[in-house]
Protein backbone atom coordinates (compact mmCIF):
# COMPACT_ATOMS: atom_id res chain seq x y z
CA UNK A 1 0.00 0.00 0.00
CA UNK A 2 0.98 3.65 -0.46
CA UNK A 3 1.52 5.84 2.61
CA UNK A 4 2.62 9.41 3.33
CA UNK A 5 4.78 8.45 6.29
CA UNK A 6 6.31 5.29 7.72
CA UNK A 7 7.94 5.42 11.16
CA UNK A 8 9.80 2.15 11.59
CA UNK A 9 12.28 0.19 13.69
CA UNK A 10 11.03 1.60 17.01
CA UNK A 11 12.56 -0.24 19.96
CA UNK A 12 9.04 -0.20 21.40
CA UNK A 13 5.87 0.88 19.60
CA UNK A 14 3.05 1.47 22.09
CA UNK A 15 -0.31 1.20 20.34
CA UNK A 16 -2.47 1.43 23.52
CA UNK A 17 -4.99 -0.32 21.29
CA UNK A 18 -8.49 -0.77 22.68
CA UNK A 19 -10.43 -2.02 19.61
CA UNK A 20 -13.09 0.62 20.14
CA UNK A 21 -14.00 -0.79 23.51
CA UNK A 22 -13.87 2.44 25.47
CA UNK A 23 -11.32 3.37 28.14
CA UNK A 24 -9.12 0.71 29.72
CA UNK A 25 -10.23 -0.26 33.22
CA UNK A 26 -8.65 -2.03 36.13
CA UNK A 27 -6.09 -4.67 35.13
CA UNK A 28 -6.48 -3.77 31.43
CA UNK A 29 -4.74 -0.48 32.21
CA UNK A 30 -1.46 -2.46 32.23
CA UNK A 31 -1.83 -3.36 28.54
CA UNK A 32 0.14 -0.98 26.30
CA UNK A 33 -0.28 -3.04 23.13
CA UNK A 34 3.50 -3.00 22.88
CA UNK A 35 5.11 -4.09 19.59
CA UNK A 36 8.91 -4.62 19.76
CA UNK A 37 10.67 -3.37 16.61
CA UNK A 38 7.41 -1.75 15.63
CA UNK A 39 6.27 0.49 12.79
CA UNK A 40 3.33 2.74 11.99
CA UNK A 41 2.15 3.90 8.57
CA UNK A 42 0.19 7.14 8.05
CA UNK A 43 -2.03 8.10 5.14
CA UNK A 44 -4.17 11.24 4.83
CA UNK A 45 -3.40 12.26 8.40
CA UNK A 46 -4.69 9.00 9.84
CA UNK A 47 -3.15 5.77 11.04
CA UNK A 48 -3.19 3.34 8.13
CA UNK A 49 -1.31 0.37 9.56
CA UNK A 50 0.53 -0.66 12.71
CA UNK A 51 2.71 -3.75 13.16
CA UNK A 52 6.21 -5.24 13.21
CA UNK A 53 8.72 -3.33 11.11
CA UNK A 54 9.47 -6.32 8.86
CA UNK A 55 5.80 -6.74 7.96
CA UNK A 56 5.21 -3.04 7.22
CA UNK A 57 8.40 -2.50 5.27
CA UNK A 58 7.52 -5.45 3.06
CA UNK A 59 4.11 -4.06 2.16
CA UNK A 60 4.12 -0.26 2.59
CA UNK A 61 5.66 2.23 0.17
CA UNK A 62 5.93 5.57 1.96
CA UNK A 63 6.77 9.04 0.64
CA UNK A 64 8.74 9.65 3.82
CA UNK A 65 10.42 7.17 6.12
CA UNK A 66 11.62 7.85 9.65
CA UNK A 67 14.01 5.48 11.41
CA UNK A 68 13.10 5.30 15.12
CA UNK A 69 15.81 2.80 16.09
CA UNK A 70 16.47 2.74 19.81
CA UNK A 71 13.42 4.92 20.51
CA UNK A 72 9.86 4.66 21.79
CA UNK A 73 6.96 5.54 19.47
CA UNK A 74 3.57 6.16 21.07
CA UNK A 75 0.30 8.14 20.80
CA UNK A 76 0.38 11.88 21.55
CA UNK A 77 -0.64 12.80 25.07
CA UNK A 78 -4.17 14.00 25.76
CA UNK A 79 -4.33 16.48 28.65
CA UNK A 80 -7.97 16.30 29.80
CA UNK A 81 -7.95 19.08 32.44
CA UNK A 82 -6.28 22.46 31.92
CA UNK A 83 -6.99 26.10 32.70
CA UNK A 84 -4.67 27.25 29.90
CA UNK A 85 -6.18 30.70 29.28
CA UNK A 86 -5.52 33.33 31.94
CA UNK A 87 -3.61 36.57 32.49
CA UNK A 88 -0.99 37.37 35.14
CA UNK A 89 0.56 35.08 37.74
CA UNK A 90 0.41 34.30 41.48
CA UNK A 91 4.05 33.89 42.42
CA UNK A 92 3.38 36.04 45.51
CA UNK A 93 0.74 33.59 46.77
CA UNK A 94 3.11 30.69 46.21
CA UNK A 95 5.61 32.37 48.49
CA UNK A 96 2.89 33.07 51.11
CA UNK A 97 1.90 29.40 51.04
CA UNK A 98 5.50 28.39 51.58
CA UNK A 99 5.41 30.63 54.67
CA UNK A 100 2.39 28.73 56.01
CA UNK A 101 -0.79 30.31 54.59
CA UNK A 102 -3.32 27.76 53.26
CA UNK A 103 -5.01 27.86 49.86
CA UNK A 104 -8.38 28.47 51.57
CA UNK A 105 -7.00 31.30 53.75
CA UNK A 106 -5.62 33.04 50.67
CA UNK A 107 -8.94 32.53 48.85
CA UNK A 108 -10.93 33.92 51.81
CA UNK A 109 -8.71 37.02 51.81
CA UNK A 110 -9.68 37.77 48.20
CA UNK A 111 -6.68 36.05 46.64
CA UNK A 112 -6.64 32.71 44.87
CA UNK A 113 -8.85 32.34 41.82
CA UNK A 114 -10.32 35.87 42.26
CA UNK A 115 -6.86 37.36 41.96
CA UNK A 116 -6.47 35.76 38.52
CA UNK A 117 -10.06 36.77 37.67
CA UNK A 118 -9.17 40.44 38.26
CA UNK A 119 -6.07 40.20 36.07
CA UNK A 120 -7.95 38.33 33.35
CA UNK A 121 -10.89 40.75 33.31
CA UNK A 122 -8.44 43.64 32.94
CA UNK A 123 -6.61 41.98 30.04
CA UNK A 124 -7.64 42.27 26.40
CA UNK A 125 -8.25 39.20 24.27
CA UNK A 126 -4.94 39.90 22.54
CA UNK A 127 -3.10 39.94 25.88
CA UNK A 128 -4.72 36.70 27.03
CA UNK A 129 -3.84 34.96 23.77
CA UNK A 130 -0.27 36.32 23.89
CA UNK A 131 0.22 35.10 27.47
CA UNK A 132 -1.40 31.69 26.86
CA UNK A 133 0.36 30.87 23.58
CA UNK A 134 3.80 30.08 25.12
CA UNK A 135 2.10 27.68 27.54
CA UNK A 136 0.43 25.90 24.63
CA UNK A 137 3.80 25.76 22.85
CA UNK A 138 5.33 24.15 25.95
CA UNK A 139 2.51 21.61 26.10
CA UNK A 140 3.10 20.62 22.48
CA UNK A 141 6.87 20.42 22.97
CA UNK A 142 6.21 17.98 25.84
CA UNK A 143 4.02 15.81 23.62
CA UNK A 144 0.46 17.01 24.25
CA UNK A 145 -1.49 16.86 20.98
CA UNK A 146 -5.03 17.26 22.39
CA UNK A 147 -6.04 19.29 25.45
CA UNK A 148 -9.21 20.30 27.22
CA UNK A 149 -9.22 24.01 28.15
CA UNK A 150 -11.56 25.61 30.68
CA UNK A 151 -12.84 29.15 30.96
CA UNK A 152 -13.42 30.28 34.55
CA UNK A 153 -11.28 33.37 35.08
CA UNK A 154 -13.92 35.74 33.67
CA UNK A 155 -17.05 35.02 35.75
CA UNK A 156 -19.17 37.55 33.87
CA UNK A 157 -20.87 36.60 30.62
CA UNK A 158 -18.70 39.05 28.70
CA UNK A 159 -15.42 37.90 30.25
CA UNK A 160 -16.26 34.20 29.95
CA UNK A 161 -17.00 34.78 26.24
CA UNK A 162 -13.63 36.54 25.96
CA UNK A 163 -11.97 33.36 27.27
CA UNK A 164 -13.95 31.18 24.86
CA UNK A 165 -12.77 33.51 22.07
CA UNK A 166 -9.18 33.06 23.28
CA UNK A 167 -9.58 29.26 23.23
CA UNK A 168 -11.15 29.39 19.76
CA UNK A 169 -8.40 31.66 18.46
CA UNK A 170 -5.62 29.44 19.84
CA UNK A 171 -7.34 26.34 18.47
CA UNK A 172 -7.49 27.88 15.00
CA UNK A 173 -3.84 28.91 14.88
CA UNK A 174 -2.23 26.04 16.77
CA UNK A 175 -1.56 22.37 16.08
CA UNK A 176 -2.90 21.15 19.44
CA UNK A 177 -6.59 20.18 19.31
CA UNK A 178 -8.40 22.15 22.03
CA UNK A 179 -11.65 21.04 23.64
CA UNK A 180 -13.43 24.03 25.24
CA UNK A 181 -15.15 23.69 28.61
CA UNK A 182 -17.33 26.37 30.22
CA UNK A 183 -16.35 26.78 33.88
CA UNK A 184 -18.39 29.84 34.86
CA UNK A 185 -18.80 28.06 38.22
CA UNK A 186 -15.09 28.22 39.06
CA UNK A 187 -15.49 30.64 41.98
CA UNK A 188 -18.16 32.85 43.45
CA UNK A 189 -17.15 36.30 42.15
CA UNK A 190 -16.51 38.86 44.88
CA UNK A 191 -19.40 41.03 43.65
CA UNK A 192 -21.72 38.10 44.54
CA UNK A 193 -20.24 37.44 47.98
CA UNK A 194 -23.00 36.13 50.24
CA UNK A 195 -25.31 35.82 47.20
CA UNK A 196 -23.95 32.67 45.61
CA UNK A 197 -27.40 31.49 44.53
CA UNK A 198 -27.91 34.71 42.57
CA UNK A 199 -24.68 33.96 40.70
CA UNK A 200 -25.91 30.41 40.03
CA UNK A 201 -29.10 31.99 38.61
CA UNK A 202 -26.94 34.06 36.25
CA UNK A 203 -25.03 30.96 35.12
CA UNK A 204 -28.17 28.90 34.55
CA UNK A 205 -30.36 31.59 33.02
CA UNK A 206 -27.90 33.63 30.96
CA UNK A 207 -24.42 32.18 30.66
CA UNK A 208 -25.22 28.53 29.90
CA UNK A 209 -27.82 29.13 27.16
CA UNK A 210 -25.35 31.49 25.50
CA UNK A 211 -22.24 29.30 25.63
CA UNK A 212 -24.15 26.14 24.68
CA UNK A 213 -25.85 27.61 21.63
CA UNK A 214 -23.49 30.38 20.79
CA UNK A 215 -22.93 29.93 17.08
CA UNK A 216 -20.64 32.86 16.98
CA UNK A 217 -18.24 34.67 14.73
CA UNK A 218 -14.79 35.37 16.00
CA UNK A 219 -14.37 39.00 14.98
CA UNK A 220 -10.97 39.59 16.42
CA UNK A 221 -7.40 38.93 15.58
CA UNK A 222 -5.19 39.27 18.65
CA UNK A 223 -2.84 41.79 17.17
CA UNK A 224 -3.96 45.10 18.54
CA UNK A 225 -2.61 47.18 15.66
CA UNK A 226 -4.22 45.05 13.05
CA UNK A 227 -7.71 44.07 14.12
CA UNK A 228 -9.55 42.51 11.24
CA UNK A 229 -12.59 40.36 10.95
CA UNK A 230 -12.13 36.67 10.66
CA UNK A 231 -14.88 34.12 10.47
CA UNK A 232 -14.59 30.73 12.08
CA UNK A 233 -16.94 27.85 11.54
CA UNK A 234 -20.27 28.33 13.23
CA UNK A 235 -20.48 25.91 16.12
CA UNK A 236 -21.31 25.67 19.79
CA UNK A 237 -18.65 27.46 21.79
CA UNK A 238 -18.33 25.03 24.67
CA UNK A 239 -18.42 21.24 24.54
CA UNK A 240 -18.45 20.62 28.30
CA UNK A 241 -19.67 22.34 31.46
CA UNK A 242 -17.64 22.01 34.66
CA UNK A 243 -18.26 23.11 38.28
CA UNK A 244 -15.77 23.59 41.11
CA UNK A 245 -17.76 21.82 43.83
CA UNK A 246 -15.85 22.20 47.07
CA UNK A 247 -15.59 24.06 50.35
CA UNK A 248 -15.41 27.79 49.62
CA UNK A 249 -16.71 27.22 46.07
CA UNK A 250 -20.05 25.69 44.98
CA UNK A 251 -22.24 23.31 47.00
CA UNK A 252 -23.49 19.98 45.67
CA UNK A 253 -26.99 21.45 45.26
CA UNK A 254 -25.64 24.40 43.26
CA UNK A 255 -23.50 22.04 41.17
CA UNK A 256 -26.53 19.84 40.53
CA UNK A 257 -28.56 22.84 39.30
CA UNK A 258 -25.82 24.01 36.96
CA UNK A 259 -24.91 20.59 35.56
CA UNK A 260 -28.54 19.53 35.10
CA UNK A 261 -29.20 22.71 33.12
CA UNK A 262 -26.02 22.13 31.08
CA UNK A 263 -27.02 18.57 30.30
CA UNK A 264 -30.42 19.73 29.08
CA UNK A 265 -28.60 22.08 26.70
CA UNK A 266 -26.55 19.21 25.28
CA UNK A 267 -23.23 19.89 26.98
CA UNK A 268 -21.09 17.08 28.37
CA UNK A 269 -20.44 17.24 32.11
CA UNK A 270 -17.29 17.49 34.22
CA UNK A 271 -16.84 18.29 37.89
CA UNK A 272 -14.00 19.34 40.21
CA UNK A 273 -14.75 16.79 42.94
CA UNK A 274 -13.30 16.22 46.41
CA UNK A 275 -10.11 18.25 46.04
CA UNK A 276 -10.25 19.68 49.58
CA UNK A 277 -13.53 18.45 51.18
CA UNK A 278 -15.75 15.42 50.46
CA UNK A 279 -19.08 17.17 49.77
CA UNK A 280 -20.63 14.42 47.63
CA UNK A 281 -19.53 15.72 44.24
CA UNK A 282 -18.40 12.29 43.03
CA UNK A 283 -21.81 10.78 43.80
CA UNK A 284 -23.35 13.64 41.82
CA UNK A 285 -21.03 12.96 38.86
CA UNK A 286 -22.10 9.30 38.79
CA UNK A 287 -25.80 10.17 39.11
CA UNK A 288 -25.63 12.67 36.25
CA UNK A 289 -23.44 10.36 34.11
CA UNK A 290 -20.72 12.97 33.83
CA UNK A 291 -17.97 12.35 31.29
CA UNK A 292 -15.34 12.83 34.02
CA UNK A 293 -14.92 13.53 37.74
CA UNK A 294 -11.60 15.24 38.50
CA UNK A 295 -9.26 15.55 41.55
CA UNK A 296 -10.80 12.80 43.83
CA UNK A 297 -8.20 13.41 46.54
CA UNK A 298 -10.56 12.87 49.51
CA UNK A 299 -13.41 10.92 47.89
CA UNK A 300 -15.07 8.57 50.43
CA UNK A 301 -14.40 4.86 49.60
CA UNK A 302 -18.03 4.04 48.76
CA UNK A 303 -18.21 6.88 46.22
CA UNK A 304 -14.85 5.92 44.72
CA UNK A 305 -16.19 2.37 44.24
CA UNK A 306 -19.37 3.70 42.65
CA UNK A 307 -17.29 5.86 40.32
CA UNK A 308 -15.18 2.84 39.36
CA UNK A 309 -18.32 0.95 38.36
CA UNK A 310 -19.75 3.86 36.36
CA UNK A 311 -19.02 5.12 32.84
CA UNK A 312 -17.50 8.33 34.28
CA UNK A 313 -13.72 8.55 33.88
CA UNK A 314 -11.81 9.44 37.08
CA UNK A 315 -9.17 12.08 36.39
CA UNK A 316 -6.22 12.33 38.79
CA UNK A 317 -4.31 15.62 38.96
CA UNK A 318 -1.23 14.80 41.05
CA UNK A 319 0.49 18.03 40.01
CA UNK A 320 -1.93 19.97 42.21
CA UNK A 321 -1.11 18.46 45.62
CA UNK A 322 2.53 18.57 44.52
CA UNK A 323 2.17 22.24 43.58
CA UNK A 324 0.53 22.97 46.91
CA UNK A 325 3.27 21.09 48.75
CA UNK A 326 0.67 18.69 50.19
CA UNK A 327 1.23 15.01 50.73
CA UNK A 328 -2.28 13.78 49.94
CA UNK A 329 -3.01 12.29 46.50
CA UNK A 330 -5.90 10.52 44.84
CA UNK A 331 -6.09 6.85 45.98
CA UNK A 332 -5.49 5.61 42.44
CA UNK A 333 -4.56 2.03 43.35
CA UNK A 334 -7.91 1.50 45.10
CA UNK A 335 -9.72 3.02 42.10
CA UNK A 336 -7.94 0.77 39.58
CA UNK A 337 -8.42 -2.28 41.81
CA UNK A 338 -12.16 -1.55 41.78
CA UNK A 339 -12.15 -1.61 37.96
CA UNK A 340 -12.11 2.16 37.42
CA UNK A 341 -11.01 3.97 34.25
CA UNK A 342 -8.33 6.40 35.36
CA UNK A 343 -6.96 9.34 33.38
CA UNK A 344 -4.14 11.77 34.19
CA UNK A 345 -4.03 15.53 33.54
CA UNK A 346 -1.80 18.46 34.38
CA UNK A 347 -4.48 20.84 35.81
CA UNK A 348 -2.27 23.61 34.32
CA UNK A 349 -3.32 26.77 36.23
CA UNK A 350 -1.66 29.81 37.82
CA UNK A 351 -2.60 29.07 41.44
CA UNK A 352 -1.79 25.49 42.30
CA UNK A 353 -0.08 23.87 39.32
CA UNK A 354 1.74 25.79 36.61
CA UNK A 355 2.88 22.68 34.76
CA UNK A 356 2.58 22.04 31.02
CA UNK A 357 4.36 18.67 31.04
CA UNK A 358 2.50 15.36 30.87
CA UNK A 359 5.83 13.46 31.17
CA UNK A 360 6.34 15.13 34.56
CA UNK A 361 2.78 14.22 35.62
CA UNK A 362 3.44 10.58 34.62
CA UNK A 363 6.67 10.50 36.64
CA UNK A 364 4.86 12.04 39.61
CA UNK A 365 1.84 9.69 39.36
CA UNK A 366 4.12 6.64 39.52
CA UNK A 367 5.78 7.90 42.69
CA UNK A 368 2.91 9.63 44.53
CA UNK A 369 0.03 7.36 43.49
CA UNK A 370 2.00 4.15 42.83
CA UNK A 371 0.87 3.71 39.24
CA UNK A 372 3.01 1.48 37.06
CA UNK A 373 4.58 3.22 34.06
CA UNK A 374 2.20 1.32 31.75
CA UNK A 375 -0.88 2.38 33.74
CA UNK A 376 0.29 5.99 33.75
CA UNK A 377 0.82 5.96 29.97
CA UNK A 378 -2.66 4.52 29.34
CA UNK A 379 -4.08 7.15 31.72
CA UNK A 380 -2.33 9.94 29.79
CA UNK A 381 -3.41 8.79 26.31
CA UNK A 382 -6.41 6.56 25.64
CA UNK A 383 -8.24 7.10 28.94
CA UNK A 384 -7.56 10.84 28.81
CA UNK A 385 -9.08 10.91 25.31
CA UNK A 386 -12.23 9.30 26.70
CA UNK A 387 -12.26 11.90 29.50
CA UNK A 388 -12.80 14.59 26.83
CA UNK A 389 -15.17 12.60 24.65
CA UNK A 390 -12.60 11.93 21.91
CA UNK A 391 -11.77 8.30 22.69
CA UNK A 392 -12.81 7.11 19.24
CA UNK A 393 -10.61 9.68 17.46
CA UNK A 394 -7.32 10.00 19.35
CA UNK A 395 -5.41 8.44 22.26
CA UNK A 396 -4.12 5.27 20.60
CA UNK A 397 -2.30 4.16 17.45
CA UNK A 398 -5.06 2.24 15.73
CA UNK A 399 -6.22 2.16 12.13
CA UNK A 400 -8.47 5.09 11.28
CA UNK A 401 -7.51 7.23 14.25
CA UNK A 402 -5.79 10.58 13.81
CA UNK A 403 -2.04 10.20 13.37
CA UNK A 404 -0.97 12.03 16.54
CA UNK A 405 2.37 10.32 17.22
CA UNK A 406 5.35 10.92 19.51
CA UNK A 407 8.92 9.74 19.12
CA UNK A 408 10.61 9.61 22.54
CA UNK A 409 14.38 9.64 22.75
CA UNK A 410 14.42 6.78 25.27
CA UNK A 411 14.90 3.04 24.66
CA UNK A 412 12.08 1.76 26.87
CA UNK A 413 8.67 3.20 27.87
CA UNK A 414 9.52 2.91 31.57
CA UNK A 415 12.05 5.72 31.12
CA UNK A 416 9.08 8.06 30.70
CA UNK A 417 8.35 7.60 34.40
CA UNK A 418 11.84 6.72 35.59
CA UNK A 419 13.42 10.00 34.45
CA UNK A 420 11.88 13.32 35.39
CA UNK A 421 12.47 17.05 35.08
CA UNK A 422 13.58 16.90 31.45
CA UNK A 423 11.76 16.34 28.20
CA UNK A 424 12.00 12.87 26.62
CA UNK A 425 9.89 13.93 23.61
CA UNK A 426 12.05 14.21 20.50
CA UNK A 427 9.40 14.70 17.82
CA UNK A 428 5.65 15.34 17.72
CA UNK A 429 3.44 14.50 14.73
CA UNK A 430 -0.08 15.93 14.53
CA UNK A 431 -2.32 14.29 11.91
CA UNK A 432 0.86 12.98 10.31
CA UNK A 433 2.72 16.33 10.16
CA UNK A 434 5.85 17.03 12.18
CA UNK A 435 4.77 19.97 14.39
CA UNK A 436 7.40 20.04 17.16
CA UNK A 437 10.89 18.75 17.83
CA UNK A 438 13.16 17.34 15.14
CA UNK A 439 14.10 14.04 13.56
ZN1 LIG B 1 -8.99 22.48 37.65
Could you please describe the fold and organization of this structure?
This protein has 16 helices and 16 strands. The protein is α/β, with parallel strands linked by helices and 439 residues long. Residues 224-235 have low confidence and may be disordered. Strands 1, 2, 3, 4, 5, 14, 15 and 16 form an eight-stranded mixed sheet that branches. The two termini are 24 Å apart. It has helices at residues 53-59, 91-98, 103-108, 113-122, 125-141, 157-173, 196-213, 252-264, 281-287, 301-309, 319-323, 332-337, 358-368, 373-380, 382-387, 415-418; strands at 2-14, 34-43, 46-52, 61-67, 72-75, 77-79, 144-150, 177-185, 240-245, 268-273, 292-295, 313-316, 342-344, 405-408, 425-430, 433-437. Zinc ion binds next to loops.
Rg, alpha carbons: 21 Å
Question: What is the helix fraction of residues, given as a range?
Answer: 25-40%
The general outline is: globular
The end-to-end distance, rounded to whole angstroms, is 24 Å
Low-pLDDT ranges: 224-235
Strand count: 16
Q: Mean pLDDT score, rounded?
A: 94
> Which structural class matches the secondary elements?
alpha/beta
Biggest sheet character: 8 strands, mixed
Number of helix segments? 16
Strand content: 15-25%
Name the ligand types: zinc ion
Amino acid sequence: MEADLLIHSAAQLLTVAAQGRGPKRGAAMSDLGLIPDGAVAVRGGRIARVGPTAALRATVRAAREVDASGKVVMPGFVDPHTHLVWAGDRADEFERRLAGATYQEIMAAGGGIMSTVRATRAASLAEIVAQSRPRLEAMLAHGTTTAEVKTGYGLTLEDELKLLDAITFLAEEHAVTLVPTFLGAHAIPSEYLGRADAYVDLIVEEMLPTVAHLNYRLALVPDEDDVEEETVNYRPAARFCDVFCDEGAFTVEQARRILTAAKRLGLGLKIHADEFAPLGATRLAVTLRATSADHLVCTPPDQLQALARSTTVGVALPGTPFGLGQGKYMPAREFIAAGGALALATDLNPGTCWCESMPFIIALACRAMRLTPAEAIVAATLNAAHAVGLGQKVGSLERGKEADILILDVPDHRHLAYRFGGNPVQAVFKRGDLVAGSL
